[in-house]
Amino acid sequence: MRIVLLGPPGAGKGSQAERLSARYGIPHISTGNIMREHRKNQTELGYVLDGYMSKGLLVPDGITLGIVAERLSLDDCKNGFLLDGFPRSVPQAEAFEKDYSDNFAVINLNVTEKVLLKRIAGRRTCAKCSAPYHVDTLNGKTFCVKCGGSLVQRSDETDAAVRKRFQVYNEQTKPLIKFYLKRNMLKDVDGNKPMDEVFEDIVRILENDLP
After folding, report:
1. Alpha-carbon gap, residue 189 to 161, rounded angstroms
2. Pick the catalytic residue: 39, 123, 128, 164?
3. Could you say which of 13, 36, 71, 124 is catalytic?
């Protein structure tokens, strides 16, 4: 099974991807997480990525495509994969299509801007293990319950960076919806619902609505 998960920042792609990965036994490939690891480890690529990500800008297609190609070449992807955060532009989608034709499902999480802003503003991430949290469920905690690391707000989730990410999404990523609609590949899911309901809707599509 090959799945592409689309949606704006804060739509819940990461949370749903983890659950789908466990259900179907396929790797969850988050280009954002891979890039953040490079930044955290201060690799040569990480320094290049930081110049884009800290400003909420899309990483150039050539760099992103190289990262994805390298990851998909690993053995754990032979029986399928779930892509979270890729493709983010029509050129990336066209390049990906050359390698995989139309042999994958595209799930788009639709979420209103009001809900998205609330979700992103309250996000916190463990500085040590990258575990995600939200202030609504932390009950005042400032540390990670998994490893004890401190919880921080990512530089790309500040108010200014979030506004820029929305602008970039509307300009460069949202056209992907039209791209996949023309190919009759897109399946919409209401991402405003509670997480469990969203997951059930996605599973229903994957197991009942696809050929």
Report:
1. 26
2. 123
3. 13
Known catalytic residue at 123:
yes
Strands 81-84 and 28-30: parallel
183 noted as active-site residue: no
Q: Per the confidence metrics, is the pTM higher than 0.85?
A: no
Instruction: Specify if 67 maps to a domain.
Output: yes
Which domain range does residue 193 map to? Answer: 2-111+158-209
Q: Verify whether residue 163 is a known catalytic residue.
A: no
Q: In this structure, is residue 145 part of a structural domain?
A: no
Q: Classify 29 as helix, strand or coil.
A: strand
Q: Which of these is catalytic: 36, 71, 124, 165?
A: 165
Is residue 165 part of the annotated active site? The answer reads yes
Domain at 53, CATH number:
3.40.50.300
58 with 164: CB under 8 angstroms? no
Specify whether 36 is catalytic: no
Number of domains in the chain: 1
User: What are 136-150's pLDDT values in tens digits?
Assistant: 889 889 999 999 999
